[in-house]
Structure formats: C-alpha cells, structure tokens
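Model it.
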Amino acid sequence: MNLAVAFTQSTHNHADKIALFWGDDEFTYARLHVQTRWLAARLVRDFNVQPSDRVALWLKNCPEFVPSYFGVLTAGGVVVPINNFLKPDEVAHILNDAGVNVLITDAAMAETLPNLIALRPGLRVVQIEEFAQATDATEFISPARETDDLAVLIYTSGTTGRPKGAMLSHGNLLHNVASCRVALNANAQDRFVVLLPMFHSFMMTVGVLLPLLTGCAMVVMRSLHPAKNILAEIVRRRATILPAVPQFFRTLAGVETGSDFPLRVCISGGAPLPAEILREFSAKMSIPLIEGYGLSEASPVVSLNPLAGPQKAGSIGVPIQNVEVCVQNDAGHHLAAGETGEICVRGGNVMLGYWNQPEETAKAITDSWLRTGDIGHRDTDNYFFITDRKKDMLLVNGINVYPREIEEILYQFPGVKEAAVIGVPDTRRGEQPLAFVSATEGAALDEKALLGFVRERLADYKVPRQVRFLPALPRNATGKILKTELRKLAAE
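Modeled.
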C-alpha cells in the first residue's frame, strides 16, 4: 500500500462525490483523479521524473494542490512541499539540498521564477494553469512504490539554523492518517475546513490526506479576511471539523456564530493553546476545542485530548492510536509521572530520518525513540504536558522560526556589531521576533533601513517587528550572549 494507491481507491469509491469546495467551485473525486493521472503521465513523459525523484510544490492554497501532490506520488516521485512565504534565496536552498529539478507552481509566482532558476540552473517548471487541459490518462501505469519508500520530504527549521528535510515514508503518513481518523471519529460525511497553508505538515495530514483518503470533503477557504467570511463558508458548506492555530480560535470566540453552526469539533495545533483562549472559546461555544501536539518528524500528529473526554486544559492530551510517548532524561532513562524531561515519541509515524544528514538523524532518533527537544511531563492518567521547549525556536503563526537565521542577516548589515533575536508573546501570531542590536563604534543605525534589509532576504513572518538598540549585549563569562537577560528586558 502507498499513498497513490490509497488515493486512487478513494477516488473510485467516491467518484461522484464532492471532494473539494473552493468558493462556488466544486471538485468531485473523479475530477481530481483525472487531473492527478494527467499530471503523473506528464511528469514521466515530458520531465523524465523517475521513481524517488524529488518534485517541489510551491503553491498557495488552491484546488490544484491536491492533484499536484498526488500526481507526483502517482508518478513515483517524492513530494517536496515548500512554504509559499519564502523568498527565492530560501527556496533555492531547499531545491538544491533536495536535488529538485522540477517545480510545480502557479502564475502568481512568475515574477520570482527567473531569480529562482538563476539560483537553481536547469530547474523546469510546471504551472497549475495547465491543469485546465487535463484529460484522463488511463493508459498510464504508476510505478510500484512500497510502504517504506520515501513519499514526502518536508523541510523544518527545527533548532539548527538552516532547514532540514524530514523524510516521511508512505507508511509514516498512512499510519498517521489511520490514527487521526480514529481519534476524530472521522467518517465520509465529515467536511474539513482548510484555512491553514497546505504546505504545513499539520494541514497536509489532517486537512488534506485524512479527508481525501477517508471519503470526506475539504472546504478550502479562498479568503481568510474578515473572519465572518470564513464563518459564512463554514455554514454554507456545512463543515464539521476545523483544524487551526490557537489565535484563530480567539477570533472565533469573538464572533457571533448563530444556532445553526455545523462544526462538531475544533482542533488546535501548530503552537501551544493558551489557557485564556481555551477559556474564552469554551465560554462562547458549545463544541469541543481539543489541543493536540505534533512535529513534522512525526508525520506530524503525536497526541490529542480525547474527543470523548476528559480534556485537560494545558495538556497536549494522550498519545493517538499506535503511537507511544514517554519522558526521558538526558541519559535516555524513562521518567515517572510528574518528573520533567524530554518528550520522546515512538511509532510508525516517526520519520525515516533527515535527508542527507546522518549525524542529525542519529541525534534525533535513539533506540527508535524520536527526541522532540520539547520539555515536559506526564500525569498519572498518562496525559502529557509541555512546560518548555527548545530555548531559541519561535513559533510564528504555528511556523518554526529560528533566530540564528535572522541574526546572521542582521550581522550582514553595515555597522551592526552584535545581534540577537528572541521571541515575544503576540496575541495574534503567538510569538513575534524581537531583535536586539548594538552598533560598531561611530556607526549610526536606522531601524527602518535595518528591517528593510532583512525583509529583502527573509520571509515576512521572520522579520522582527522591532529592533532595540543597546550599547552592548549582555554576555556571560565565556562570551555567550545571555538571551535570558534579553527576555527580561523585553518583559520590562
């Protein structure tokens, strides 16, 4: 079994059913199947895509994301979903690292393609506008792919600067879909709201794979603003399951939904759910908001507060079916309830490793346990709680942001002597980067110019919203910048 076969079976079982809603447009399973087969045949025939070749998707949310994703898999290739907020330099790093020679994108990205092709010579491009000419490629024979074969290479910043490619097999993702289906009691009548980016591991599994392999439907939002547009579409399309980041649920709690609201469950992921947001939501809504936990390296869902309860505020819940979670100390010993250590995960959802990084893989997976780097504990009911996380990583709208990457750009600006970036709480985005900078002697730094310099080189969500200038950054005896002191300054 592989993802392409599973999707084909689903399209046969639900051929005439609506698989995807996009504004006023409706896409049946049969229509998505035709586009998928057409693209797969074209990738093999015109682009010589061979089994295990990496093909990148650089797309905003759109119906064509689905046949692009499954088309690559049907051709025997490996999907490399790319964050559509990234700038050409950032995308080129991923393309070069993964050895991508074919990119699927849309006309909206056209102005950036010359820069990208210059950074990745020989890159060939398929634009989704071509899908309009798709015809049924029934004669195409999909290459055999096994459960353990690589299916998706998803890049995650993690905690080590440049993003690393987490290798997810067909089996990893099928395992996670099956576990999530049980956890959410999903059935063919469910309709999943898709408002988060499909390139994100959380949405890719819970918002795309789970509904389409289960015979459900996706309600993909064309516009995210204002929030009332989303609510109107949820009601119009009778959507039942809403996965989103915590900040959206604060917005939802502040909007009048009416008595005819069809949602039966909301899932909070991508970032920790603040207790205050859960309180506000629960006071306003009669449907459960359940917090879960995951990471790209685990396909990504690891745990969830059980739908049937009890649901514990501040907890990431219990492990989903066929996934083990434990708390370990630095020596790898399992800790008892109430003891704090590193959250570790084991199961069929755990990645194969990091692409071309055996040393990083060995650090991340020991004795078949994935070391998440998140610190927490479990209680006597086997509910898990995260009390801290890797010190430097930020979560901006649920997307990993690593300060070192920003700091390296800041250091490139003329006159910058020292630079450090920390995260500060933000009610809308979860966290925002805040930069502290000191100038070389005699230099006069301008905040606007400095931020403009960063914005030209990094995705907008990585750009600090403010720069604070200090005569010198606090350091310890060995010369390491003390971010704990910077956090205190930020709090003041």
